[in-house]
Specification:
This protein has 15 helices and 17 strands. With 418 residues, the chain is of the alpha+beta class. The protein has two domains: 13-323, BirA Bifunctional Protein, domain 2 (2-Layer Sandwich), CATH 3.30.930.10; 336-417, Rossmann fold (3-Layer(aba) Sandwich), CATH 3.40.50. The strands form three sheets. Strands 1, 5, 6, 7, 8, 9, 10, 11 and 12 form a nine-stranded mixed beta sheet that branches.
C-alpha cells in the first residue's frame, strides 16, 4: 500500500520546495502584468465538459454519480469553470477581466513522460477584449515566466497561428459544422502521428485526397508571406497574425515567437490566435498552449464575451528545467536551529526559540535529548545559517552560544541581543 494511484504524485517536502518555487514564478509573472488570482471547486457538473461531444477531453473525464444522483466530474481543465463563474456575474464584472489560477486538474489518459493523470495547470485569461493586444499580453506573460526560471529563446519557442487559417482553408473546401470540429482534432495530432494515419482519419471524415492535400500543404507553411500567398492578401487570418507579430516586436519578445500554421489546438472552442510553447530540441510535449475562445460562453447557454487565455502544466516545464540544470537545490528555509543541552534547559531553549520567532526568524527547536554530533548534522541538513546552543554555564550568565554554520565561527551572545 505504499504506491499512490497510477498517474498521481506524492510531494515530499523536498518536492514541495521546488513546486512552491515554480508556482511563485507563475504568480510573479501574472501579477507583474496586472492579473488577479481566482479559484473554483475541483468538482464540477459533468455537463460542463460534455457539451462538445467528440472532443478527446470528454473521453478522459474522471466522472461519477454522487450520492444525490448527480453526474459530476473532477475538472480536466479550468476554462469551463472560469466561463461558468463569469456567466454567474454577467454584466456585474468590470471589463476587461484579467484573472489567473493554478488549479489541480485530472484526466484519465495514458501516462507518459511529462503527462500524468493529475497535474497542476497555470491558467491566465483575459475576458472582454477582442483585439490581438490581449493575445500579445499573454505571450509577454509567458516570456517573463520563462526568463524568471533561467530559460532563454535558444531553449524554447512559442509557435503561433490562428484557427482562422484552418477556417479559411476548410471554408474554401466547403467543410464546416461538426466536420470542421473533427478536422481540428485530427490535424492537432499532426506532430504526434504518422502522415498516413492523419490521412486515414481525415478520409474517414469524408474528405477526398485533394482536400487532404490542400490542408496538409497550408498547415506546413511557417512564414506569413507564404501564408498570404496561399490565402490571399485580403485574408482575415493573415491580417490578424501580422498585427499580432507587430505587437510582439513592441514587447521585445519577437525572438521567442514564430509563425507555424500547423498549430491549431484540439479543443473546439478556439476561434482566433492559438499558440504553443515547445523546447527547441523537439524532445518534449508542448510546454503550454492556449488561444482565443470568443464563443465559449455561448456554448454554455450565455451571451458570448471575447476571451483569450492559456493553460501551462507543471510537469513538462520541470522536465526541461531538469535537462538544462535549472532546478534549484532548495533548503527548507530554517534560519536557526536552537538546542538546549539537557532536559533542565528545554524550557530555556523554548524561550530563546520564541524570542527569535517573534523577530521574524524561522526556527527549528530540537525537542529531544540529542548528542551534539547529531545536532550539528541536523542543522546542516536543515540548511540553517546558525546553531543557537543553550548551555548551562552561558545560560546562567544570561547568554547563549552561537555557531555560524557558514564560517564555522562560534561566539557568545547575550540573550537580549539575539
Amino acid at each position: 500500500m505504499t504506491q499512490g494511484v497510477r498517474g498521481t504524485r506524492d510531494f515530499y517536502p523536498e518536492d514541495m520546495r521546488v513546486r512552491n518555487w515554480l508556482f511563485e514564478r507563475f504568480h510573479s509573472a501574472a501579477r507583474a502584468h496586472g492579473f488577479e488570482e481566482y479559484d473554483a471547486p475541483v468538482l464540477e457538473t459533468e455537463e460542463l465538459y460534455t457539451r462538445k461531444a467528440g472532443e478527446e477531453i470528454t473521453q478522459q473525464l474522471y466522472n461519477f454519480e454522487d450520492k444525490g444522483g448527480r453526474k459530476v466530474a473532477l475538472r480536466p481543465e479550468m476554462t469551463p469553470s472560469l466561463a461558468r463563474m463569469v456567466m454567474a456575474r454577467a454584466g456585474a464584472l468590470a471589463l476587461p477581466i484579467k484573472w489567473y489560477s493554478i488549479p489541480q486538474c485530472w484526466r484519465y489518459e495514458r501516462t507518459q513522460r511529462g503527462r500524468g493523470r493529475e497535474h497542476y495547470q497555470w491558467n491566465v485569461d483575459i475576458w472582454g477584449m477582442d483585439g490581438v493586444e490581449a493575445d500579445a499580453e499573454l505571450l509577454s506573460v509567458l516570456v517573463q515566466f520563462f526568463q524568471s526560471v533561467g530559460l532563454g529563446s535558444a531553449d524554447l519557442v512559442i509557435r503561433v497561428s490562428s484557427r482562422k487559417v484552418l477556417e479559411e482553408v476548410l471554408g474554401s473546401l466547403a467543410i464546416s459544422g461538426d466536420t470542421f470540429a473533427q478536422t481540428c482534432i485530427i490535424v492537432d495530432k499532426m506532430d504526434k502521428l504518422p502522415a498516413d494515419k492523419i490521412e486515414a482519419q481525415l478520409s474517414e471524415l469524408g474528405l477526398d485526397s485533394s482536400s487532404i492535400s490542400t490542408i496538409q500543404s497550408v498547415l506546413s507553411i511557417n512564414d506569413l508571406s507564404s501564408l498570404a500567398s496561399a490565402l490571399g492578401s485580403d485574408s482575415a487570418a493573415v491580417g490578424e497574425l501580422n498585427a499580432l507579430f507587430a505587437l510582439t516586436d513592441a514587447y521585445g519578445i519577437s525572438d521567442w515567437v514564430e509563425f507555424d500554421a500547423s498549430v491549431v489546438r484540439g479543443l473546439a472552442y478556439y476561434t482566433g490566435p492559438v499558440f504553443e510553447a515547445h523546447d527547441r530540441a523537439g524532445e518534449l510535449r508542448a510546454i503550454c498552449g492556449g488561444g482565443r475562445y470568443d464563443k465559449l460562453i455561448g456554448t454554455l447557454g450565455g451571451k458570448d464575451l471575447p476571451a483569450t487565455g492559456f493553460g501551462f502544466g507543471d510537469m513538462v516545464v520541470m522536465e526541461l528545467l531538469a535537462e538544462k540544470g535549472l532546478v534549484p537545490d532548495l533548503t527548507n528555509g530554517v534560519s536557526d536551529v536552537v538546542f538546549g543541552m539537557g532536559a533542565e534547559l528545554r524550557g530555556a531553549a523554548m524561550q530563546v526559540a520564541s524570542a527569535l520567532r517573534a523577530n521574524g526568524r524561522s526556527v527549528d527547536l530540537v525537542l529531544e535529548d540529542k548528542r551534539m554530533k547529531w545536532v550539528f548534522k541536523h542543522a546542516e541538513r536543515c540548511g540553517a545559517s546558525r546553531l543557537v546552543m543553550v548551555m548551562p554555564e552561558e545560560w546562567a550568565a544570561g547568554k547563549v552560544r552561537i555557531k555560524d554554520l557558514g564560517t564555522g565561527e562560534e561566539s557568545t551572545v547575550a540573550v537580549e541581543d539575539l
